[in-house]
Amino acid sequence: MMAIITGTPIWVWGILAYIVYVGIQAIKERIVSISKLFIIPIILIALRYNVFLSDYAALCGFSICGGTGLGFWVTTKNSGIILKEISSVKLPGSYITLVFLLSFFLLKYVFGYLSSAHNPIAVEYASVDVIVSSVLTGYFLDRGLYYVSRLR
Predict the structure, then answer these.
(1) Element (H, E) at 33
(2) What is the biggest distance separating any 2 CA atoms in the chain, rounded to whole angstroms?
(3) Would you state the pLDDT for residue 66?
(4) CA dihedral defined by 88, 93, 98, 99, rounded to 10 degrees?
(5) From the CA atom positions of the chain, what is the Rg in Å?
(6) Nearest partner of 44 among 129, 128, 130, 136, judged by Cα
């Protein structure tokens, strides 16, 4: 286990630190501009661009749709206050962002390790990676779209 952790590139730990920072900020009530709500989904889509060109494209699309449904359900339950004059939203504090981002990081970490050390296992379970990543992408994408629609 120590060999896995010490063999991890430094930049991966930087990403983890940023994810923890963003997640901790999300625990507290805060005001966020609508455009900032699209940063996470854009990053998640950029990380998965190759899936859209693979045999998993349909599964990815279906999972993103499922994630948007999840995002809509969660966002309507915990909706924020729209601040039209500054194109922002006052979001209630929640652990959901921290949990989802850490889940995404852990999934990518495990599959990154499996791809390099045990590629047949990574290939066998690639659909799990696609489904979970796409659902989380859809969740964060819907959250931004929901507030854009409420702003209008």
Answers:
(1) strand 30-33
(2) 53
(3) 92
(4) -120
(5) 17
(6) 136
